[in-house]
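Pasting two entries for a bug report.
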Amino acid sequence: MNADLWPKLLLILENRLDQGLFTLWIKPLDAKVVDNVLHLSAPNEFVAAWVRDRLLETIREAVLELTGRRPEILVSVDPRRPVLQTPAQTPARPAVEHLALPLGHAPRVESLNRWRFRFDDFVVGPCNELACAAAKGICNDSLDTDHLFLSAGPGLGKTHLLHAIGRHLAERSNRSRVSIACLSAEEFTTRLVLAIKAREAARFKAEFRESVDVLLLEDIHFFQGKGKLQEELLLTLKALQQRGCKVVLTSSFLPRELSDVDPQLVSCFASGFMALMQAPDYATREEIIRRKSKALQVQVPDNVTGLLAERLTTDIRQLESCLNNLVLKARLLGQQITEELAWQVLENYAVQTPTPGLERIVAFVCKTYGIDENELKSKSRSQQTVLARNTAFYLCRRHTDLSLAAIGDRLGRKHSTVLKGIIQVEREIAHQTPLGRQIGNTVDRLLV
C-alpha cells in the first residue's frame, strides 16, 4: 500500500455508499499507511466506533479491489484533532467528545451538484408514465396535492425521479431559497440519533419541522418496527403538511403492504397521490439503451440494442450496467461493438428465460442452499435456512405476481416476515456487502 491510497479509496467509497453515510462517517476520517497497515483517525470515539462496527468490512473490500490483498485496518481517535461542534454550540459551551457530531446535521438548500439525475434523462414509457407526470406535477404545482408516494421495485427509477424533483426545485430555489432535505430513511434515523446523543434533539426536530420546505425521503419501509422513529416521522410529516410543504416518499412497497407501522403513519403515507412504477416494456428498454449510448458517445448497432432489450427485462440498473461493460470492453480491446461481443458480456448477467413460478423458485433455492422444501417451510432459525427463506421471498416478489400474503401462505410464514426478509435481501444487495454479492450471484443464476 502506498501513501496515495486514501484519495483513491474515497472515490470508491463515495460511489459505493449512500451519500449520507459517506458524508457522516467516511469524510471526517484522516488516513495514513504505516508498514502496510491502514490507520484511520476519527474526530471522536463515537465516529470511530461506528466505523469499526458498520463500515470496516466495506473499507477493507475497497482496499482489496485496489491492491489485490485484504489489509489490516486500525481505527482510532486522534487526540490532536479538535472536537467538531454542531452549529448551535458556542465557545461558552464546551463540546463533550463522545457526544460530538461528525458534522452539522441541519437541513440545507441543496447544491445543484448534489442531484444525480434530471427529468430530461428519464425515459418515459407505459411502465412509469403516471409516476413521471406526477413528479413533474408536484414541481409545477399542477398536482392537486403536495404529497407524492412513489412505489417500485429496485432499479426501476424511484431515485431518478426523486433527484429530478430535487434538481428542478433547487433550480427554482436560486430565486426563492427553497430549503430541500433529500435523504434516505436510514440517514434520517442516523441524524436523529446523533442529535439525541449531542443533546440537540429539540433543534433537529425544529429544523425539520419549521425550516424545511421540501422533504424527499427514500425507502420509508425502513421505519417498520421502529415505534419511536415512527412517532417522530409522523409529527414531522404533520408539521410539514400544516405548513403546505412538499413531501415525496419512496418505497419498494405500497403503504398497505407495510407491517408493524402505526396506522396513523400508514394513513399519512397514503394521504397524497400514489404512483406505482413497473418493469419497463421492450420499447422503453430500447429507448433507454439509445439514450445511454448517446450519453456514452458511442454508436450501438440496432441488432445489439435489440438483443440487450430482449434479454435484460426486469431491472434498469442491470440494463445500463451491461451496456457500460459492453462499451468498456470494446474500448479496452480496441474492437467494434458487435452482437458476438454483446453475447460475451451478457454471460455475466441474468438474461430473460421463461418467467419462473413459485415451484421453480423453491426448487432452485433448496438446491442452491442444500436444504429440502420441508426445512425451508419449517420454523428453523438456522442462519442457512433463514438466508434461503429470505432469498425465496425476494425471488417470488421479483418474478411472480403473488402478493406478500400469498407468498407467506405458500412458504408457511406471515406477511410481515416475508416483508422483512425481502427488505433484508434488498439492503444487502444494494449496499454491496459480501453477503449481498453472494446473494446477488445466487439470484442471478435462477434465470441462467
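Entry 2 (this is the one that rendered wrong in the viewer):
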Amino acid sequence: MTPRLDGLAALEGRGELGYSPPVRYYLETFGCQMNVHDSDRMEEVLHAHGWQNTPTPDEAELVIFNTCSVREKAEQKLRSEVGKLAPLKAARPALVIVVAGCVAQQEGERLLKQIRHLDLVIGPDNIPELPKLVTSQLGGSPKTARTEFDLVETHFLASSPQGGKTPVSAMVTTMKGCDERCSFCVVPYTRGPERYRPVDEIIADIARWVEAGSREVLLLGQTVDSYRDSSLPSPNTGDPDESQFPFLLKRIAKEIPTLARLRYTSPHPRHATPSLARTHAELDVLAHHVHLPVQSGSDRILKRMIRRYTREEFVERARRLLAARPDMTMSTDIIVGFPGETDDDFEATLSLVREVGFTALFGFKYSPRPHTPAKKLADDVPEVVKAERLARLFAVIEEQGATHLQSLVGTSQEVLVEGASKMSRAEMGLRRVQGRTVRNEIVHIEVPREAHVEGQLLNVDVVRANKHSLEGQIERENLARFRRASQSESPRRALPIFAS
C-alpha cells in the first residue's frame, strides 16, 4: 500500500522522521454522559501525544465520531455525519476518519465495509490504543477494526485535569458494562459485562478533579448502583439486590470533604435498597435528586422488557428514596410503543408517572436494536401510535414539571454556578450565568459583569419559573456588596462572590 504523504508528515511531528506541526483532530460526540466522558478521555490521550483539536473537520488530519447505539435515531445521525465527509475524503485521501464508541463496538468490521471512506473503528475499551492506531493509519496501514473488551485485565483511564480548565461538574466512571440483559438494550453487547473500578482509583480520580477546581462530581456507570469492591464492607443484609454502592458513597464523602456535591447516574431500580435511601438521608454531599429509570408502568411490559421488578416494587423503592430528604425529586426514563404495548399498558405508565410524581423524564419511542432479544418480537405498535403516546407522556410531565418549578418561586435556593447562561440577555453592567440547585433545577442569574462566580455556591431568591428552568436573583445584601466591590476594584480583576 502506498503511504499517505500527509500522514508521513504527521509522523515527522512526533520525532520519528524529523519535524512538522502536530496532528490536528476534530472530535464529535453522540449519546449519553458516558460517551461524553469517553470523549474527554480520548482528548486527554491525544493531547498527551502532542496532538491538537480543531473546531471543524476541514482543518483536521484526523476526524473522530464517538457514537451511541442505544437509540436508532442516534445511530442514523452518525451515519449521516460520516457520509457528509465523503467529498472531503475524496479531496484529501490522507484524512483519517474514525468511528469510536458503541456503534463501533456493535458493528466492527461491518462498518468498514458499509462506509468505504472510513479508516478506523475502535471500541470503548480500546481508547488507550487510539494514538497508536491512528499513527498506523497515517503511515498507510490497512483499514482496521479494534473492538476488544478488556475482560482479562480491566483498565480504567484516569483523568488528567488541568487547573484553571476544569469543569465545575466533573464526571468520574465507577464501572463499565452491564449484566442486566434488558430485552430492549444493546449496552451489554456494546459495553460488555460489568467490571468495577477499584475504589482507591475512584477516590484518587475525584481528588484530582477537586484539587484542580471542580466542585461537583457525577459518578457514571451503566448500572452505577450495582457497584462492588472487595475492599469495602460486605452489606450482610441477605438481600441479593444489595450492593456496596452505599459504602462507596460514604467513602467518597469521608475522604474528600471539600467536595461540594456528589451525584450519580444511572442506577437500576433493583439496587435502590433501604441502604441507599439511608445513605441519602445521612450524607449532605449527595444531591437531593435521583434519576431512576422505570421504562414502563405496566407489569406485563416490564416482564417482557426483563426489568426484574414489578410496578409495585418500583413505587416502593422510589417512595423510599423520595422520603430520604424533604425536598427530594426524581426523574426517569420511559419507552413507549414497546412490542405488544396496549392502550391499557400505556395508561398504566401514565398513572405511574403521576403516582411517583416525577419532575422530569426522558421519553423515547421504541426502536429495535441489533443483538437484543426484543428484536425477535414483532414491532407491532404503529409509528403514529408511538408518536401520539409520546406526546401524551410529555404533556403529563410538562404539567408536573411546571407545577414543581412554580412551587419554588419565592424560595431561597443554594445554586452551584456552572458557567454562562444559555439565556444571554442581561442588564447593563451585568452578565447572566446559570447553575443548578441541590436537586437539579437549572437557575439563571444576573451577576455583576466582573464577578467571578463559576464554581461558587450562591444563595439565590427564585423570582420566576420558566418552562424548564428558574430565574433567580442574588440576595439583596450580597448584590449590594458586589456593587461596592465593583466600584473599588480594577475592571480587569475578577470580583469574589459572597454567599450568606
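Dev reply: Rendering is fixed now. As a check, the viewer should reflect this: The longest helix spans residues 383-407.
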